[in-house]
């Protein structure tokens, strides 16, 4: 039906909020910025080892290294002494003339590259008085630097020999060692060799690091978390050859799978938590403990193996005797352990589908009451959730240890730092919300690392994001499944916008040692990108299948970024090159601006309708100031009505017979479908969007109609393919649009939502006023102030922030553990800020 003019608010209105830019007409045509250009020129050419579908190729190969290790922990001297035999299997098609070995402990040498390349924070940050702890020189930072210069760390190597005992030629280069083979190692052959070594264990609370010891002043005991503790085979693979980049602290480990047979000799009163399965429980555990472990396998709640009372009793003396714990682990890329007489130990089994695991937690009494309540529960939750999204956990144990290390992962075992706070005076134990959720989330994260990169064995020294990003993404999913509103800080698009606006960024596709803003770049941004891919671009069904396929294909193999990108496309049937290009290869941000909106209705060509419509528009125009002031004026034609004629009766909007005849002729010339179209009565809107952030994004349009009805229209990102910075989109509705919002649920990580709505919305904010303060030093008053007693001074003492010199390991620790949302009172609603450019 025809619409009456009165029902139409306006046929045309324009809202122009963006300033026109003048004078920028380019002299030469700029090259077209093709956001959808295929990635082929950036990705390696597919071959027989890695297919174009992202799967391992039919000639895929990887090396293997099996280890037999005997080691002794000297608690009094804080040293570890060991001997290892490595059997290296050359499964590559190549003949090798030398082997590269990783010597991670050399990071702690006083003259290590890591120490020598350390830079101070900016002069301003260094000298700024300590405010909220973010900047300024710290006691811990300076202690770290000074203690590091004096610490005689690093491997002391000896007796490097063939299995037959013949000495081997070798050269140490920083954290790497090359062993020259006595004869070329042919494809398919293996070579066994042995190394003796010892090293001083670092005080993790002073020197930092991913492992080390913690000394407990109160009971004079030591807790050891031991990792990167033996010379390990560097990886050799089809894409990188030998992965022998120096370990500077951030790029973790690129390792080969193998079987381990490890005997650890420790003080007889220690409890050892380790990668692998205990082979000699009869030698090291009591009958009661063995019995409890058996019960734990089928228990629905954690069973305490070593009670807090047992651990506290053990703390009171130091055994001079030793015991040897024997562990074996199959098909792992590394091996770590923890040892202390302070350990409380609980365990609970979990069995489902391909998983049959004993989840275990080891913690000193300082960890309780938090640890007995949450640690083992969090391990099992992690396995349940990660199995759902990736692969069935294949190992027999999954361990969480509380010690000095904030958060670090190894096969089957992880180190997790959060503990309750003990009031120094009353001894009362309390924990903050941050500590509670920090503990649960760091355990999910570190246990989750078993999947990425312990099983899906990406090259960590090259790409931090491939394990940290993917792991942070699944961690985000697992946190949602723990409880509603879990304060996980990485994954939700709204939490990444501040980073995306920041200026000191590098693309995600940056080598691990060169990443700026480590936690945001390698953890939060890829996790958020994958969440957007899942929720907004592919949808859960396509995404989950593809992600799982990636885990299935690369389980116990070594994928590269191209294998991930290609698998996600191949299994979802979606060209995502634009997405990888924008999110992983650039530092662009999403900032879509809704610039203009214009409403159109079809001209019916009927003069009765159209002239009335025009008249109504005319009537809507504001009365001019002159006309307003002339109101009531006596006019000539009013005084002498005889002066009026036809034109005083009819205006420009009068419909004439000529109009009617013309309309009839026009209509006779139209096809029936053309006439129908004129009667549709649809509302047509032209909406201009500009891409201010550079990153192409789908449009999610919330359309509010005059009746109050709201609809969501989802427009794929390909809408930008011909015009990546500015597009005009046609919207068709049955009634007038009264409001339009782009990205109403904040699902695209749009960094500036102030330009997302029509009509524009004022951003609410609070202006806080402060008193003027004048501080006049008053020496006389200060002089006369009475001296405080010791107790009062202690009460004023505030513990300093515990993150000193941020080298690679410290940056990693910060990234692993600071993964929660800021608490609400410290996090104002996202301000509508201007983008950096
Ligand atoms: Zn991590």
TrEMBL record:
Q: Which residues form the signal peptide?
A: 1-28
**InterPro entries named among the record's database cross-references:** Peptidase_M1_aminopeptidases (IPR050344), Peptidase_M1_dom (IPR014782), Peptidase_M4/M1_CTD_sf (IPR027268)
Q: Name one Pfam family in it.
A: Peptidase_M1
Record's keyword terms, sorted: Aminopeptidase, Hydrolase, Protease, Signal
Spell out the residue ranges making up region: Disordered.
780-837
Q: Which GO terms describe its biological process?
A: peptide catabolic process
Q: Which domain of life is it from?
A: Bacteria
Which Gene Ontology MF annotations are present? metalloaminopeptidase activity; peptide binding; zinc ion binding
The UniProt entry, under CDD domains, shows: M1_APN_like
Q: Which residues form the Peptidase M1 membrane alanine aminopeptidase domain?
A: 382-583
Q: Name one GO cellular component term.
A: membrane
Low complexity bias locations: 800-811
Where is this chain compositionally biased, Basic and acidic residues type? 788-799, 822-837
Know the name of this protein?
A: Aminopeptidase N
What is the species listed in this Swiss-Prot or TrEMBL entry? Answer: Pseudoduganella lurida
- List the taxonomic lineage: Bacteria, Pseudomonadati, Pseudomonadota, Betaproteobacteria, Burkholderiales
